[in-house]
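Now for one protein, fold included:
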Amino acid sequence: MIITTTHHIEGRQITAYLDVVSAESVQGVNFVRDFFARFRDVFGGRSQTLESALKEARAQATEELKARARQLQADALVGVNFEISMPSAQGGMVVVFATGTAVRLR
């Protein structure tokens, strides 16, 4: 399945706009690792724990998005957008929302 953040696919014609599809993934961040990640926030550096949780949540949301598009017999998803949220000020969870438009192609 073709997935793109653009609203068209070079060299292909969209013949039908099927529906807007969305998916979400919530990942817990290990509390002990997250505690040490806060030190990195203060002193600088990358938080591999948070990066890992974000990658996993994005991958899960993308797979769910594709599955929902397949249910509509779509050939592609256009205009895909990802939004990231951390509902708690102390961290602990990462939420990734994905949306896109399922389309058929010629």
Helices lie at 31-43, 48-71. The beta strands are 2-3, 14-28, 76-85, 93-105. The mean pLDDT is 87. The longest helix spans residues 48-71.
